[in-house]
UniProtKB/TrEMBL annotation:
GO terms for biological process: mRNA pseudouridine synthesis; tRNA pseudouridine synthesis. This is tRNA pseudouridine synthase B. It holds the Pfam family TruB_C_2. It is an enzyme of class 5 (isomerase). The active site is at 38 (nucleophile). It comes from Aedoeadaptatus nemausensis.
Amino acid sequence: MKGVVLVDKPEGITSFDVVHQMRRLYQTKQVGHTGTLDPMATGLLPICIGKATKIADYIADNRKAYVAHAVKGIRTDTFDTTGVVFAKSEIEIPEDPEPILDLFRGEQMQLPPMHSALKYKGRKLYEYARRGICVPRKERPINVSSLIILERNDDGLTLKAEVSSGTYIRTLIDDIGVAMGSFLTMDSLRRISVGDEKVEDAHTLDEIEAMDEDERQSILIPMDRLLDHVPAIHLPGHRKKPMLNGMSSRIHFQVDEAPLYRIYAGGDFIGIGTLEGNGEKRELYIKKVLY
């Protein structure tokens, strides 16, 4: 059994809570999620089942899109409305926010929030934050490929953002609010896509619970569908067995430079690999067998 089930996570539970339920429903311990959604967040959470757990980290690296609502006038220590307010502003959101939004589009550096699961000296940052301790953090490169305002209302605004892996939307919103002077704090978040997969195609936990075993199997999608951000190399069928046995394949054709490649042999997805060498002496090695 292998594949990915697209879950529409409800508000109020953790991503691991979803994993726990999928372990029970699919009767296997080989279950993993592909990028944490905070308890207050809802939306698309791809869950890897069986051998697909081996690519959970690769799927997590795919681009993601979110819709978030932010209230104006306050900042909190968590950058969302679950936190403690530490600053207020009566400045209104600019009539034309585009110049400010443009500052946050494209490649940039972002400082991760203290209330996050990243680790410092073996402990999660939120453990320090809950004790009132602020520890050093390094800015990380992110890419905001799309950032638009969907709606403005009396208490704030609704944003849609498509971002690279590792982007904290609540931090992005807080930074935008500071730049506006009006302050913004996220009070809802919904993940609407991961790569080309949409939340409209996801299943609620109640729907999956109501399915029989065959129906649950039928909703598993091929794991390579969520690896569209990783370029593919297609080999003839006779190279399948040698590659699966650890041998390399000489690549004589032009391929885009990338750190990793999806490897297909005879049309079958067999794993993730790397290219070594230069010019006409480039060898393809399988790094993770997934066949």
